[in-house]
Design goal:
5 helices; single chain; Pnp Oxidase, Chain A; 8-stranded antiparallel β-sheet; two-stranded parallel sheet; alpha+beta; 34% strand
Length: 177
């Protein structure tokens, strides 16, 4: 059952964790859906993971490295040799932080590896299953910007992003074998 963010937060706070995790699926924020549907955006999604020592690692993902599949799973591509890819492989957990005019959204996810096809085999793909969503904006302030960037070669970057987004949607689950 899909729940709006406010109802998901209320019910998951009062129900036992195992019941909340299995019965409730958070609805992804509309602003995040709009972002993932775009072909170009100059705001990064932050992916947070914990390394073996418990320290937070942060990766900045562009719209070309994040898609939502038909089951409301988020698929991401990371550099294959990155700390973040190793952390997701080891822990199976990630947090996405996304900033929009509607707020600052924290999307907690379970992560499973994907096998990316062809030209993208040097990247590590992951399917993220949202298990919790919170709007972290404070009532006394409005966020005006997240991490923003400027593309150096926009035409080439857009071509690469299109190819990667298609590969992410076509990727098969990977069991490590």
């Amino acid at each position: 059952m899909k729940l709006p963010i406010s109802e998901f937060a209320r019910r998951s706070a009062v129900e036992p964790p195992e019941q909340a995790a299995s019965a409730l699926v958070p609805e992804l924020p509309a602003a995040f859906r709009r972002y993932c549907a775009r072909s170009v955006a100059k705001v990064a999604v932050e992916l947070l993971s914990a390394d073996e020592d418990g320290w937070c690692r942060q990766a900045h993902l562009s719209v070309g490295e994040v898609v939502i599949d038909g089951r409301d799973r988020i698929r991401v591509a990371l550099w294959g040799a990155s700390h973040s890819a190793a952390n997701l492989s080891r822990s199976g957990r990630a947090v996405l932080m996304f900033t929009a005019s509607e707020g600052v959204f924290e999307i907690r996810c379970n992560a499973a590896p994907l096998r990316l096809p062809g030209d993208h085999a040097h990247l590590s793909g992951f399917e993220l299953a949202p298990i919790g969503v919170r709007n972290k904006e404070a009532p006394y302030a409005r966020i005006v910007s997240g991490v923003t960037f400027r593309l150096i070669d926009e035409q080439e970057t857009r071509r690469r992003w299109r190819s990667l987004r298609i590969a992410l949607l076509a990727a098969a689950a990977y069991d490590g074998g």
